[in-house]
Amino acid sequence: MALRNDRAVQAARDIELVETDDGYTLVGGPEHSITQEHDGDRIPEVDVDQEMLSNAGEDPESWLMYGGNYEQQRVTTADVITPDNVSDLELEYEMSVGTGSSMEGTPIVVPGDPPVMYQTNGPNHMKAIDPREGEVLWSYTYAVPIGVELCCDDNNRGAAVLGDKVYMTTLDSGVVALDRYTGEEVWHTQTADHEVGYSATWAPVIHDGTIYTGSAGGEYGVQGFIAALDAESGEMMWQTHTLLEDEWIGASREHGCGTSWMTPTIDEERGVLYSPVANPGPDFDGTVRPGPNFPTCGTLSLDLEEGGFNWGFQSSPHDVWDYDAAAPRVLVPDVEVDGESTDLVVGSDKSGWVYMMDPESGQLHERSDEICQHINMWEMIPHISADERIPFVPGAPGGNDWQPPSYNPETGYVYVIHQNFPQDLYWRYEEYSEGNPYWGGNLDDPASEMPDEWNESITAFAAVDPATGERVWREWIESEDEFYMWGGSMSTATGLVFNGTQNGTFVAYDGESGDRLWEYEFDVPISASPMSWYDPGEEKQYVAVQVGGSGWLRQGTRGDTLAVFSMED
Known about the structure:
This protein is mostly beta strands.
C-alpha cells in the first residue's frame, strides 16, 4: 500500500503545528490513535529480552535503544566501514516517511531475517520498516489531544523495545506501548497533566522490565520528575521529583522546573541512572528563586529500583541564562587517570564545556577546555527594565542543547556538538499562570549587536579526552542561513565518527584527527542523530539518518526523508 493511502500517515499529516506567542500548539488530527497494517507478517517473531538489551553495545547486528547501549555511547561494533574504505560508502536508498514534520529521531533495529527497524518522528508517528528494502510493515499515529502546549516543536526522538512491545513517549506527557508485530496499541499511561504544561519528546529506556522516562515543560513552571513504569502493564512504579525540598527556599520549589527531557543513562553495575536536569523556573528571573536551585542545570543520579536520590552536580548554579543540561549523559568506562582505571560520567552542557564526574559521588573530575566561545559569560541580567540587553555567547540554545554526544572506544574520545551564536537576553517580571509560559524574560535572536569577539561560526564539533578534559580537535561550522546544527553524532569501532550538519551535509570524520573522510549532500538540514547495524543476511553494514529541519529556533527547511547507506563486507 502506498503511503498516500496510509491512514496513520494521513492522520499525522492532518496534525498542524501552530506557532503561538511563546511556543507552539497542535490543531487537527485524529480523535483516536490509528494503526495501518501493511505487511507485519514479515516481522520475525523473536522477542527482545533483557540479555539482548544488556549486550546491545556488543552486538553489531542491532541498535536496540536510543543511545546504542545503556551507557549512551552511541557506538556500533560493526566494523565493515573503516577510515580506509569509507570513501566507498554508498546510498542504499532514501524513503519518505510521509509526514513532513520534526525529524530528530534515531531509529532502532531489532536483528532478524529480515531485521526490523522502528522509526519515529513528529508528531508521535511510528513505523515498522524492513530496512533491507525500505518497505513499511505497519504505521501508527497517536491521537495527541488538541491544545497541547509545546515550547519547541512536535518532536519525537525514538523508541524503546522489550519482548513483543515497542514504546514511544507522547506529546501529552505519556508513554504508549504497541504490539511490535502489528502496531496495535496495548496501553497508554499519562505521567503528568499536559494541561499545566507537561510534555514528552525523548526516547524512553527499558531495564529489567521497567521503563524509565522523564518530564518536559520547563518553560511552563512545572515541577520536574523522573518516573518508572512497568513495561508490561504501564503501571507507575515510582516517580521522583528532581528538586529536593530542603534545597529550595520558601515556595520557589513549587514552580521551580528542573525537568529531565532526554533519555536517562543506565549504569547496570551500580544499579543507578544518570539524567540531565534542565533549567530552573522561571528561566531568566532569578529573584523569585534565591539560592543555587540545586540540582538544576546539571546531572542527577537516582537508584533504579526505588528512585532514591544519590547525588547531583550543577554546571550552572542559580542559572538565569537558560543553560539547562539536556544532552544524555555518557558513561565512559576504564579511563586512565593518574595511573588508575576509573569510570566517568560525561555531561556536555549548554554552558559550553564538557564535565567529567565520578559515578559514585558526582564529584567533578575535570571540566574540559572550552568547546564554543564564551563572550559576556555569566553576566547578570540587569533587573531594571525590559529595555536592557546583554549579547552573550553561548546563547540559550548552548553550547550543547539536546544533541547526544558519542564515545569512541578506539580513540578514547567523546565527540560533542556546541552552538556558538550570540543572543540578547532581557528580564521581565511575570506571575505564574497555570498552563502558560513562565519565562521571566525573553531572548532576541539574533542579538541586536554582534560582539566584536564573535568568530561568525555558528557551531563547533569537537573531540574531548575525558581523562584530561583536553579539546583534542575542533571543527568550526558556518551556515549561510544561520541554522543551528541540531543533531548528534555516532561512532564506530573502527575509529570513525558520523554526524549531519545544518547545511545538509552527512559527514564521516577520522575520530583521531578530525579530518573529513567522506561527505554526502542533502538539500535540507539534518537534525537527527545517525545509527548503524550489520545485516549478516545481506553481508552489509548500514548507516541510517533522518533528514529534515527541526528545532525551536532556526530549524531550517522541513523534510521527511530516512536515508540509508551501506557497504558490503
